[in-house]
Amino acid sequence: MELINPWLAVIGIIVMLVLLIIPLGKKSAYKAGKKVANIEIVEQTDLYKKIKRRYNIVNISAMGCLLVAVILACIIAARPAKVEQINTELRNRDIFICLDTSTSVDKLNLDLCEKLKKVVKKLDGERFGITIFIGRAVLLVPLTTDYDYVIENLDRLSKSIELSLKEEEEGYEININSEEYETYTFRYQGTLIDEGSSLIGDGLASCLYNFPDLEKNTERSRLIILASDNDIYGTQYVSLEEATDLCKKNNVKVYGIAPEEVVKEGEYIRCMEKTGGSYYKYTSDKVLDDLVKDIEKTDTSVMNKVDTVIYDKPEMLFGIMIFFIGVYFVLSKIAKR
User: Model pTM?
Assistant: First the structure.
């Protein structure tokens, strides 16, 4: 147990002692009642001595209780607390998932989201983030260790993709005024432009620069899981070649995965491998398992993070203070009898 603001207790106790000492130098003036002469005889009786002795004991005890209560109040004001140093082990690795959320990659993205939810649940101290793109990239989840929040957003993406597949295969119509429509459009918010789809170079470059302290903190292990069919429609600001060059320059490995129908597969493979990552063609769930295993094998170091946690502990002292205040009032009444 220690005091967070000990100076408050010191100041309070000093002020209290000063107030106690000051009245001692003055004799209380006679103010009320009737003057009685020749009380010496009464003061010598045993009954008077007994009553006075009891009064002095009760009065001193009452003042002692009040003094203790005031001291406890000063200590409580100084914030008694238990301070603990918690040493947390963090894995020094950042993982970004970068998803092309155009409809041509729906089946792959749906399965990948389900697989990644299991991966996220196994993480311990590693940071995870999500970027999605179609024509424009959107940072859906910044790098975080709040895995519940990550899984929540993966769930929302999965539900959005499921509705898209349902609409496509069954001719299902979605009411634009329903909550279902909000779920359906979740992946489109901010990612659509008038002319452009699957702009993979722009999406990857945007994802890369969502890593904080990219150039300053070069010791962290960083990787991107990129899912796209590389079927570009429109004009990119950054090509896939240029984006992967930037990843290589910043020591970020890219693990690319594509559906069975992929455009310029050779270029896609070469770009992934030059970053130190790998390429996976989605033909079965085993491919996703291989992707996850390879990611788990990537280099990671361990950092120790020390957090100071303060637990306020005023309860016991407050209870004792209330007890002494109660005793003071009882003794004060007894002293007046």
Answer: 0.62
